[in-house]
Amino acid sequence: MSLLDYFRASKPRTASIAKERLQILVAHDRSHHNQPSYLPQLQKELLEVVRRYVNVDQDAISVNFEQDENQETLELNIVLPDYQQTDKNLPG
Amino acid sequence: MARVIVVTSGKGGVGKTTTSAAIAMGLAKKGHKTAVIDFDVGLRNLDLIMGCERRVVYDFINVINGEASINQALIRDKNCNLLYVLPASQTRDKDALTQEGVGKVLDELSQDFKYIVCDSPAGIERGANLALYFADDAFVVTNPEISSVRDSDRMLGLLSSKSRRAERNEEPIKEYLLLTRYDPDRVHSGEMLGLEDVQDILSLHLLGIIPESKSVLTSSNAGIPVILDEKSEAGQAYADVVARYLGEERPHRFIDGKKGFFRKLFGGKS
Q1: Is there a contact between A11 and B194 if contact means CB atoms under 8 Å apart?
Q2: Using CA atoms, how far apart are residues B237 and B240, in angstroms rounded to an integer?
Q3: Chain B residues with CB inside 8 Å of A7's CB?
Q4: What's the pLDDT at A84?
Q5: DSSP A48
Q6: For labelling, which of A13, B20, B43, B192 has a CA lying 20 to 30 Å from the CA of B14?
Q7: DSSP secondary structure string, B213-255?
Q8: Assembly ipTM
Q9: Which residue of A has its CA nearest to B151?
């Protein structure tokens, strides 16, 4: 800091912004890297199975893996289309 | 048996080679026979920082390929006769570095040396992976800057999962933090992440803070590890780091800006 700085308006404290961004980023990175490596393959195969019965989009399935101290959770989310064109693909 | 230290960071330009040269010199000066190895095949720089670039005849890859013996490739330091440098190859392809080859060289060096310092390249490619694979201790070099802290966190993940110790379920690599290019005044004015901020995220055993110092550049200009510039703050900080690593108690310095009144007024830089 020089003499001039004393007369300048106080600058924003960017270090605290950096820290906040880092905390979010690192938490995200860590959860991503801790995911089991089979997750993308699982998502792909699940989508194939669901598509045998329901005509859903590529992004209609999301697979989330979460981890806290006590348990690991695998969350599976399938969004079905508004009206179902079930007849033609269903067996039987 | 030697103790293998990897100096790593993920991000480039944070001071890995400066640190490798400084701590290898520091350990040797304390009476421990030390080898420092450049793992940055194709972009070797350690020889420049150590001031031995004109004495390179054989390199790490020559030894791995059996084209030279380890003793032919090792360069004895001109300032300290307990310190040896193993330069990287400047021309060969990175694929020449193999896990088996690196393991053999480290085994051979272990017979004769007390410490082996592995100067990792930036990134998380083969050179960086092999530099950390055989390590017992890791010096994680971090700048108080957002991308460097993030990359260090990523490296910590690799250290705990991709090392030989992890594969063999042995005691994990000991991880130490070296916070480099630290400017206490900028931390004080809220412009730079402070030690506490970085530790809130990485929570590592702190080996030392290396303050931003002009002597790092002037030392590298001259090819002399900065730890030999005993008058400089960076040189003293590295000497503290080596002493702490070897078990001495030394209070941490350079955390807070403590400039004199006149230097504060006129913005002098050390």
Answers
A1: no
A2: 5
A3: none
A4: 53
A5: H
A6: A13
A7: -HHHHHHHHHT--GGG-TTSHHHHHHHHHHHHHTT------SS
A8: 0.81
A9: A26
